[in-house]
Amino acid sequence: MTHPLNHNAAQNDDVVHPEPEDDEQEDEDAEEENDDDDDVLPNLRAPPSPASKLQQQRFKVETLARRLSSEMVPIRVHDIVVNGNTKTKDWVIEAELKGIETATTMQDLMRACEAAIARLQALEIFDSCKVRLEPGPKELPNTANVVVDVVEANNTVSGECGVYTKPSTSSWTLECALKYKNLFGYGDIWDTSLAYGGSQATELSLGVYAPLIKRLLTPIVARIMLVSQDWQEFSSYKEQLLGASLGLISTKHHDLVYTLGWRTLTDPSQTSSRSIRRQLGHGLLSSLKYIFKMDRRNSPIRPTRGYAFLSTTHLGGLSPDHRSLRFLRQEFDVRLAVPFGFYNTALNLGISAGAVFPWGQGFMNKTSPLPERFYLGGDFSPVCTLGGPTTLWGFKTRGLGPTEPRRQSRNRDDDNNGDSPGWDFIGGDLAVTAFADLSFDLPIKWLREHGIHGHVFAGSGNAAKLTQHEYKHFSPRKFLESFRTSVGCGIVIPTRLFRLEGNYFHILRKDEHDRGKTGFRFSFSAPS
Amino acid sequence: MAENEINTLVVRKPCFGLPTGCTQCLSAYLYLKFAQLPFQLDFHLNYPDSDQIPYFEVGDYVAYNNEKGGVTECLKRDFGVVDLDIGISSLPDWISTKAMLTTWLADALAYELWVGFEGYSSSPAYTIYYSDLPWPLGKVLFWRKARWIKQKHGITNENAELKKEEIYRRASSAYGALSTWLGEQSYLFENRPSSLDATFLAHGLVVLQALPESSVLQPKLLEHGNLVRYVQQCKTELIDASPTPTYAWHTAGSSSTSSRSTSSSKTKTKTKSKPKREKTEEEKTFKRRSKYFVAAQLVAVVVFITIMTSFDDAEVGLDE
């Protein structure tokens, strides 16, 4: 094990050894410089004892550590060597080592090496990644060679299982995936997944994640999927989508995804209302979805300070065929968390708004596609669900908004059945939700230590239909007057993965057909 | 009268000079014309493989074509539309004529539309069923229907010609029999319109108007002058004449939905607020309570695991 400074130490009396670090950190080697002395006068001195060697090494490491903590130790990287990759392409690994070449001090080099190890491990294709520093050529003082030792994963097949939340559909999904790693040596990960969730949603998909394709700035994520969703209970239709999606840009703040799919809406029960009935059938979805997200809150589960902003633009109809589904959907979501400085109290405020409308020839007479409309309601907390107007405390999935009566039967047998056929929630073209949540620590120490806190909240929301000349009957005043409102209080148990709330809701205002009820309910929310 | 209360027959695309190019939809249209029931047309253009179309709406009541003998039977039974088949549906020749129309002639037209033409866009089926769908969707649905027809008739590459001859021979025989039966009458049975007249006239109109000159089926119908006159007379009287008694005539305004505006979002007058049976209420309460119980158990387990895990982490931290 060598250290770059030891060669130069032969020329000056200051020999330093790096302090041993973790295996996960860079391995720094130190060699005995006394070997030179031994060569010159081999007969005059006995070989050093192990204890003496250990003492010298410790001295060198301590000296190095002192030097590193007190001054910037200049260094230059001469060469980077990658060992251990038999399948993975060299340039895939080298692309993750950015920052090492340009390091000018030992401290920078160590930080760059730590970051490189983290990036290599994030590829999920290596069993271990180690970075060693070795001295550079003797004729080039203050240089080092960086040696990257990787061990490619033996088991290229792995399985995963998890539970995720989908705020857009107000449901949870259980997802099991089988992954095959590094098939072509580009760090590519292929996966087949099967997901099952609320509203009898099922998804079967095949995807590939390629972190690096030459000349492309961001990873490529592509999926082929078959998704089916059952909205029979709420809106009397089932949705099926067979298609493919391609992630074009995926960074911390920006996401751009293209989706091409064949969407089919059916109603096996044949009970749908008029506007649902007219939308049953086939459609071609060719759309681009851009998400800009900035979340500066200190915690996604229990935010107590900071702000967040989300904008989602979804443009459908990107095909030369004018018969594809053409729509433009825009959502905004703004959050603010204000700390009060006592009992960890914080006020969370949020407002979300969204609109969808068709475009193209004759768009004034067209209606917006059913699955793209806004459906409000669901057992999710709006505090940690960042994704446009989706939910309101106290209302069930698709529990508020425009409704239409379902089909009634004129069969004499059905007349004896006293049950009303029910109402379909047909979604809105315009939706607005807002909430205020005041969270505070509870007086019991054990609860405080585990982050369990209380909150009182108020929420409000509304959705309205605008397309097909309904905008002529729309007035902002009527829209505001018909806002549904709920208040409540409860206990929040934040865990590492999700936020559990036990709340008591009181519905202050709802419409006749809304599905919201005053009472006690649990809700699970995962940050999004 | 509220817009929702207007009798509406929802059919497939109007084309080839006909109010709708689909024979089943046209048959329902002609029956309502014969019955002199005022109605308007609306169009459902993006669901070519649905067996629900045509359907008849009035208010929140709907009669689908795949229910209880078809939309015509539903109209007669549930909507009070006059039964034009009274007194003749029990005649011996009624069943055989109906079988001939709904099997031999219907199969021949379906074969011609989906299998008889080279290429997807050269078939009139494209215009009638798929022209409002994007190309890949229409193409796949067309291919799927063609495959279904071939499977239905047991058509393979080896027996394709034989099957084709058999299908067209039966159609010829059916035309001959109908021509003989009709003679110089104005209608098939007792010189008054019936549902079978609507069925045959719909078939005849599509064969004469929609099929091109290269069609195999069209010349076979043209051989029988009285049938052609019968069809032309129907077209003149029921389709080309001024549209009475219908409320309105709407054309397709979009590729996927009708041009009529949908009902308002909060229609409260249609609610039937009948009291629920106590038994159903108890069952719902029981189901709700059982869901709460299961959820509470699950929550307790999750919280226990999470808190105990965090306890262990804290202990490990202290040890370090």
TrEMBL record, chain A:
Source species, domain of life: Eukaryota
One Pfam family per UniProt: Omp85
Name assigned to this protein: Bacterial surface antigen (D15) domain-containing protein
Region (Disordered): 1-58, 395-420
Domain Bacterial surface antigen (D15): 182-524
Family, similarity comment: Belongs to the SAM50/omp85 family.
UniProt keyword annotations, A-Z: Membrane, Plastid, Plastid outer membrane, Transmembrane, Transmembrane beta strand
Biased composition (Acidic residues): 20-40
Membrane topology category: Multi-pass membrane protein
PANTHER family linked to this entry: SORTING AND ASSEMBLY MACHINERY COMPONENT 50 HOMOLOG, SORTING AND ASSEMBLY MACHINERY SAMM50 PROTEIN FAMILY MEMBER
Biased composition (Basic and acidic residues): 404-415
InterPro entries linked: Bac_surfAg_D15, D15-like
Locations listed in the record: Mitochondrion outer membrane; Plastid, Chloroplast outer membrane
Organism: Stylosanthes scabra
Protein's UniProt keywords contain Membrane: yes
TrEMBL record, chain B:
InterPro entries given in the database record: Metaxin_GST (IPR033468), Mito_Protein_Transport_Metaxin (IPR050931), Thioredoxin-like_fold (IPR012336)
Biased composition (Basic residues): 267-277
Pfam families with a match to the protein in the record: GST_C_6 (PF17171), GST_N_4 (PF17172)
Transmembrane segments: 292-311
Ranges annotated as biased composition (Low complexity): 254-266
Chain residue ranges for the region called Disordered: 249-283
Record's keyword terms, sorted: Membrane, Transmembrane, Transmembrane helix
Entry keyword annotation includes Electron transport: no
Entries under CDD domains matching the protein: GST_C_Metaxin
Residue stretches in coiled coil: none
Domain Thioredoxin-like fold: residue ranges: 24-116
Residues in Metaxin glutathione S-transferase domain copies: 172-233
PANTHER family: FAILED AXON CONNECTIONS-RELATED, METAXIN RELATED
Protein name: Metaxin
